[in-house]
Write a structure and sequence with these properties.
- The chain has 159 residues and is an alpha+beta fold.
- The chain has a single domain, classed as Aminopeptidase (3-Layer(aba) Sandwich), CATH 3.40.630.30.
- Helix content is 31%, strand content 22%.
- Helix 1 packs across helix 2.
- The longest helix is centred in the N-terminal third of the chain and has 15 residues.
- The radius of gyration is 16 Å and the shape is globular.
Length: 159
């Protein structure tokens, strides 16, 4: 008998910050960052970042649930910027999407797409004019299908 499961995406709660942190950690491992290159106290670092972003950058996370089990997550917020922003918010207020993660057994089912769509909707709701993210090779096709385009960022490795 075929059993279909429904994936539901909902806002994450503050009690799920540690889960979001764990997904963020595993996301880095999935893109071949060695575990020894990651701070050993990665959990508290991410949770503290989330707490600050929640207070100052309209941070919101979303989780995907399948049979009452969280199988993925995404975080989004106003982009804090790399330099002083002199432009008026109605002209340029970037939103940033980060930490898109889906458990390996649940990939290729559209879950990352659903999570990203919820993040985009949140960024729109807080007045963002653009959504920005850094795509891993695993996620690039998802974001292209959603309309994301390459930006003019350039990269120089210094060591």
């Amino acid at each position: 008998m075929f059993h279909s499961t429904t994936v539901q995406v909902r806002k994450a709660t503050q009690q799920e910050d540690a889960l979001i942190a764990a997904h963020f950690y595993h996301m880095w491992l999935d893109v071949d960052v060695p575990a020894n290159a990651i701070q050993p106290n990665w959990g508290p670092i991410v949770v503290e970042y989330i707490e600050n972003a929640r207070q100052t950058l309209n941070y919101q996370a979303f989780v995907a649930q399948k049979d009452e089990v969280v199988v993925g997550s995404v975080s989004c917020q106003q982009f804090a910027g790399l330099y002083p922003n002199l432009l008026k918010p109605e002209h340029r207020m970037y939103g940033y999407i980060w930490g898109v993660y889906v458990e390996p057994a649940d990939r290729q089912q559209g879950i990352a797409t659903q999570l990203t769509q919820h993040a985009i909707a949140h960024l729109k709701s807080i007045g963002c004019t653009h959504a920005v993210l850094n795509a891993s090779p695993l996620g690039e096709s998802v974001y292209k299908r959603l309309g994301f385009a390459p930006m003019n960022a350039m990269w120089l490795q210094l060591h």
